[in-house]
Amino acid sequence: MTTQPEISVPSTSTSTTKKPYTIYNITLRLPLRTFTLQKRYSDFTTLHATLTSQAGASPPASLPPKSYFSSTTSSPALAESRRIGLQTYLQTLNSHSDDRWRNTSAWRSFLNLPSTNNSNHPNRHAPLSRTQQQPITDPVVWLDYHRDLKSQLHSARLQLTKRDQATSSQAQHECSAEAKKHLIKASSMITALDSGLKALANDTWGREKLGDGEMRRRRDLVSAAQKEREGLENLGNAMVAKNALDGAIAHATKGDKDKLLLNGGVADDNNHNGGGGGGGSRKPAFAAAKGRVLGKESDRTRALDNQGVLQLQQQLMREQDEDVDVLAAAVARQKQIGMEIQDELVLQKDLLGLLDEDVDRVQGKMDVARKRIGKIS
Fold first, then answer.
1. Rounded distance between C-alpha atoms, residue 326 and residue 320, angstroms
2. Which of the listed ranges 53-57, 88-92, 120-124, 229-233 does the model predict with the highest average pLDDT?
3. Phi and psi for 13 in degrees, rounded to 5?
4. Among 24, 210, 327, 344, which one is most buried in terms of CB atoms within 10 A?
C-alpha cells in the first residue's frame, strides 16, 4: 500500500494580474520531498467535475459554495472560509477509504503526482521542476528545498568526479552534461530560495516572520550553496580548458618543441655574444636549461609548454583571489558581529549608568528617612 501525501492549504495570496483573483497555496509533503502548488477556485471546480466523470460518482466531499455577492479578494473572511473548505475537501479525498477518485488521472494531474510508483518514471520529479522558480515562502518547505538543493550539488560533484576518472571522451562528455544539468537545477532552486527569504522578510504572504537569527542563518545557507555551485561550475570549465590544452600539446610534434628550444638558445647566445662567433652551435642545451629547469618542475607542469605554464599560473592566481574574497567576506562578517557586540555593550553600559543613578537616588531617600527616624526616636 502506497503512502498518501500529507495535504494542506496553509495560506492564500492575491494574483498580480489586471483583474486580481485569490490563489490557494497547496502544500504536499511526501516521504522524500515537499512542494507547493498554486491553484484558483475555478481549478477546484474543474477537478470536481472531472473526478465525477472519471470515477462514475461524485466525490465524498463537496466544494465550498461560490459567492455571487462578494469577492474573496475584497473579503478576507470569505477567503479564509473558502481556504478551510478547500483544505477539508482535499484531505477528505486523500484519506477516504474508497480510492477510486485518487486513482484517476485528474487527481494525479491536479496535484502533480506521478502516475506510477516506479522511481524511474519521468514525471516523478516534475513538481520540483515546476515550482522551483516560485518563491518558497513556507519555512518548513524552504528547508526541504534546501535539502534538495544540497542533493543536486552533491550529484553534480559526483558527476564531475566520474568525469575526471573516465578514460574515454564519450564518458567524459556524458558526465559533463549530467553535471551541468544538476547545476542548472541548483541555480533555479537557489533563486527560488532567495526569493522566498525576501518574501518571508517582507511578510508578503501574511505569515509570521522568522527571527533575525534564523533569517541570517538561512541567508548564510543560500550564500554557501551559491559559492559551492560557482566553484563546481568553475571546476567544470577548468576541465574543459585543460582538455583543450592537452589536445594542443598532443598535436604538437617533437620537432616543434626542439625548434622552440633551439630558437631560445640562439637568441640567448646572440644576447651574450653580440651575434658573432661560432659558439651559437654549442648553446641550445644551456639556453633551454636557463629557460625552464625540468628537474625543479612538478607533475602538473612537466607536460606543459610555456603557454600552458602561464595559463596554469593564472588559474592558480584566480583561485587564490577567490579564496581571498571568501576570507574577506568572513572577516567583514566578523567585523559586523564585533560592531553589534560593541553596540550591545554600549547599551548595557548606559543601562548600568541608569541603574547607578537609581541606586544613588534611593540611597539618598533612605538616608533622609533614617535621619527622620533618628529624630523621632
1. 10
2. 88-92
3. -150, 170
4. 24
Give CA–CA dist 216/207, Å, rounded.
18
| Residue in the block written with cell 647566445 | 269
Closest by CA to 58, choosing from 89, 15, 19, is 89
Mean pLDDT value of segment 26-37:
84
What is the SS3 assignment for 368?
helix
In 3D space, the residue among 285, 297, 278, 281 whose CA is nearest the CA of residue 258 turns out to be 285
Burial 132-162, CB ≥16 within 10 A → b, else e: bebbbbbeebbebbbebbbbbbebbbebbeb
Q: State how far the Cα of 223 lies from the Cα of 329, in Å rounded to an integer.
A: 11
pTM over 0.85: no
d(CA 306, CA 101): 71
**pLDDT tens figures, 173-182:** 888 888 888 8
Distance CA 153, CA 133 (A): 17
Of 266, 270, 271, the closest CA to residue 288 belongs to: 266
Compute the distance between CA of residue 109 and CA of residue 314 in angstroms, rounded to an integer: 52
Residue in the block written with cell 590544452? 245
Mean pLDDT rounded to a whole number for the chain: 78
Residue 49: all three cell numbers together: 467535475
Give dist(CA 145, CA 134) in Å, integer: 12
- Does residue 156 contact residue 123 with C-beta atoms inside 8 Å? no
Please give the angle made by the CA atoms of 140, 99 and 47, to the nearest 5 degrees. 70
* 3-state secondary structure at position 228: helix
Place of cell 606543459: 304
